[in-house]
Write a structure and sequence with these properties.
The chain is α+β, with helices and mostly antiparallel strands and 99 residues long. The chain has helices at residues 15-30, 59-66, 69-78; strands at 2-9, 35-42, 49-56, 87-92. It has a single domain, classed as Alpha-Beta Plaits. The chain has a 4-stranded antiparallel sheet. The chain is globular and about 50 Å long. The two termini are 20 Å apart. This is ABM domain-containing protein. GO terms for molecular function: catalytic activity.
């Protein structure tokens, strides 16, 4: 399983539009094969700082997501709203049996 944390800093004047565009994007991403979790979170102390938390079953599922029409459209539609470069961390997770 892969876990992704993508930190997105949006220019304050674009936050409302970003959120309107994010809703259908998150819904489409959640419906993708191989997606376990796809959540947009907002920082409690900085209302224009968001973190996309994603969980994918495999690298293949993540690659398909990154090539999907809705992903490419979202990136194109929101790229000029960013106040800073996107910060992405990818974690490979090993699930342990619960004893």
């Amino acid at each position: 399983m892969l876990v992704i944390h993508a930190e997105i800093l949006i220019q304050p004047e674009h936050v409302e539009t970003f959120l309107q565009l994010a809703d259908p994007f998150v819904n489409a991403s959640q419906a993708e094969e191989g997606n376990i979790r796809y959540t947009l979170m907002v920082d409690l102390h900085q209302s224009n700082l968001f973190t996309m938390v994603e969980e994918w079953e495999s690298q293949e599922a993540l690659t398909a997501h990154e090539q999907s029409a809705h992903f490419l459209k979202h990136i194109n539609d929101t790229k000029d709203m960013a106040a800073a470069p996107l910060k992405v961390k990818v974690y490979k997770v090993m699930q342990l049996p619960v004893v």
